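User: Fold this one for me? It's MarR family transcriptional regulator.
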Amino acid sequence: MTEDEPTTEDGVWLDCSNSAVRRAARRLGQLYDDAMGETGLKGTQFSLMTQIVRSEEPTLKRLAKAMVMDLSALGHTLKPLIRDGLVELVPDEQDRRAKRVRLTAAGVAKQRELLALWQQAQNRFDEAFGREQAEELRRTLAFISSSEFTQAFSRKQDQ
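Assistant: Here's what I get for MarR family transcriptional regulator.
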């Protein structure tokens, strides 16, 4: 193998950060989905519901930005939660064109139920990965998902 050839382990391409993060995200998604058990919801839906709570009835645009999603993907993800009566869209009081997202009473109850299951999964992750490494990983991933990183990445491309 020459220096220019990508490194692999068991046939997995290791030189691409994007591929590595996506593989890890899919695996963690599977593990956290399993942790949600028989609730009928996935880890991604729990994350979305929790972001709604943390953002205190955000607009669709603000929620999409926080989740690093475009509006159409957010709408697609919200549909089953709205259909099942866990989330609702309401007009913004200051700007009736804008929609705010909030949990219904059933959504608040479901999010609390899921919180306990998520905490168990989070504890297992921290134990398996190491608490300090897990905290550092979350800080690193938060930076990668930040607008500052996007700007730095884009500047390098323009040079």
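One thing worth pointing out: The mean pLDDT is 91.
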